[in-house]
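2024-03-11 09:14:02 INFO worker-7 job=invfold-0412 stage=load source=structure_tokens
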């Protein structure tokens, strides 16, 4: 089976969030199962070409977008595991500081940037002669590919046998642009209806994928159901409900080599389920790193997150004064919205001996927090999948999570028969969050129960193999669907 996975990010080349981890982990796991997989991402200025031996193939693709013609350059790289990636270069669109925007906001031409990328994917495949059985698209940045395949490329013999799978990693980001984008993106006027890509007067890129991909999925089973309802459907619940027979949920995996407390080179002391004593050293080191003194028997909570509404920071800010009266400590690593960065920094000044805040993106520190914390906090308002709760389980760090999306699918509440792996709360309000934290505190001091929760969590297998097999199943469904279309 020949598969192309196209995405706007992929680790280790370019990362702002979980999507990048998913593309890297999934593509490798699929290759190990015998799939001929090719990944395609943009060549941003931040991609370290020397480090990853990314070379210019000397080939160009010319992409027609409405009345404009834009040229892309094709680069390629082979990973240590032998996996090939294609990078689409364009000085005009990708030679910029960030992936999607500056602190002042999204880049104004993101419509052009990602419709160019989507068309360049198709043109590149033709140029290099890679005929995929399935093109697997991810989020709004590549959502126009299924639309192009069913419109301007409809009669192209090269893609006659190509089907599509579209994965929703986060429905709240839809790629919404003013009407003139339609022309720039090369989408026919006829599709600017509510049954097409129009959405309250704007052009909605993600609708291209949701309407026209052969098969759809999201990154957890729970989220695949939640987005069919108004609360998390972001205005697209009706469309998703109509396509519910084609909509699946596949929980993400995690990179168990990179996130492995037994061998992690980024943590002060390695440990495992059979000898967890090193975790205490990691905790002591983290307490020292944040300059906390005394109260060593208090539980230490950690958070590593984008600082945005989705992740529950409005709730956290509301409870912070009351939380700081409890005998716990909290360290937060994150970056994102200015209002959260400023409020958390001010709170860390106020509660110096209890709250530590680092604003920034720092992978080694993320590992030290996962290893050194006793509890990992994820009070997300919504969470399509979430990766950190799975890293936490692997590191013996008990997650306290809201019972939504992927958090729901991956964490088992300790009150379950036989004991679970974490603590869940349902209502998105201050009392419920505080009650869950108080519960965590009580359990933490009940050493035997706590050890049981930790051990059950550390035993969980979240490796990519299972998810990759499920994705291969979805590719088969997409292929069967595509064949049906021909008849
Ligand atoms: P999302 O993609 O919504 O941000 P996920 O939980 O799927 O959430 O993935 C987030 C990924 O980004 C994880 O690998 C997490 O460790 C990482 N991450 C998020 N913020 C930071 C940060 N400030 N520093 C280091 N890693 C971070
Ligand atoms: C999105 C979601 C997150 C998910 C990630 C990877 O960023 O917010 O929950 O884990 O995509 O699928």
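2024-03-11 09:14:09 INFO worker-7 stage=emit residues=487
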């Amino acid at each position: 089976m020949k598969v192309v996975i196209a995405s706007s990010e992929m680790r280790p080349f370019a990362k702002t969030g979980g999507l990048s981890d998913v593309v890297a982990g999934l593509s490798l796991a699929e290759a190990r199962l015998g799939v001929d997989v090719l990944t395609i991402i943009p060549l941003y200025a931040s991609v370290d070409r020397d480090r990853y031996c990314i070379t210019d193939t000397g080939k160009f693709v010319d992409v027609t977008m409405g009345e404009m013609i834009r040229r892309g350059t094709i680069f390629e790289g082979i990973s240590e595991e032998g996996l090939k990636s294609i990078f689409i270069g364009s000085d005009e669109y990708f030679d910029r500081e960030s992936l999607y925007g500056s602190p002042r906001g999204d880049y104004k031409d993101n419509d052009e940037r990602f419709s160019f990328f989507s068309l360049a994917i198709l043109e590149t495949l033709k140029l290099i002669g890679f005929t995929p059985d399935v093109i697997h698209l991810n989020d709004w940045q590549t959502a126009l590919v299924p639309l192009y395949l069913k419109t301007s490329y409809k009669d192209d013999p090269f893609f006659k046998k190509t089907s599509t799978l579209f994965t929703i990693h986060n429905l709240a980001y839809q790629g919404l642009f003013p009407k003139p984008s339609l022309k720039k993106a090369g989408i026919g006027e006829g599709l600017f209806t509510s049954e097409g890509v129009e959405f309250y007067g704007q052009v909605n890129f993600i609708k291209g994928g949701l309407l026209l991909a052969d098969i759809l999925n999201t990154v957890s089973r729970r989220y695949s159901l939640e987005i069919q309802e108004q609360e998390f459907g972001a205005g697209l619940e009706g469309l998703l409900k109509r396509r519910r027979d084609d909509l699946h949920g596949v929980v993400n995996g995690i990179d168990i080599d990179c996130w492995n407390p037994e061998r992690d080179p980024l943590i002060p002391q390695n440990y495992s389920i059979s000898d967890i004593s090193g975790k205490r050293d990691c905790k002591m080191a983290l307490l020292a790193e944040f300059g906390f003194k005394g109260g060593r028997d208090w539980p230490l909570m950690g958070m590593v997150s984008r600082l945005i509404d989705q992740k529950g920071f409005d709730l956290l800010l509301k409870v912070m004064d009351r939380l700081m009266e409890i005998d716990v400590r909290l360290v937060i690593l994150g970056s994102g919205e200015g209002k959260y960065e400023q409020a958390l920094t001010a709170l860390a000044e106020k509660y110096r001996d209890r709250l530590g805040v680092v604003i920034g993106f720092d992978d080694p520190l993320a590992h030290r927090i996962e290893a050194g914390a006793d509890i990992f906090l994820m009070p997300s308002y919504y969470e399509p999948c979430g990766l950190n709760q799975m890293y936490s389980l692997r590191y013996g760090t008990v997650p306290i999570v809201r019972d939504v999306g992927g958090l729901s699918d991956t964490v088992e509440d300790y009150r379950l028969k036989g004991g679970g792996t974490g603590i869940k709360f349902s209502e998105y309000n201050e009392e419920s969050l505080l009650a869950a934290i108080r519960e965590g505190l009580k359990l933490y001091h009940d050493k035997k129960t706590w050890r049981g929760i930790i051990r059950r969590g550390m035993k969980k297998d979240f490796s990519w193999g299972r998810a990759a097999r499920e994705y291969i199943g979805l590719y088969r469904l997409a292929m069967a669907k595509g064949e049906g279309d021909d008849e």
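2024-03-11 09:14:09 INFO worker-7 stage=report msg="The two ends are 22 Å apart (CA to CA)."
2024-03-11 09:14:10 INFO worker-7 job finished
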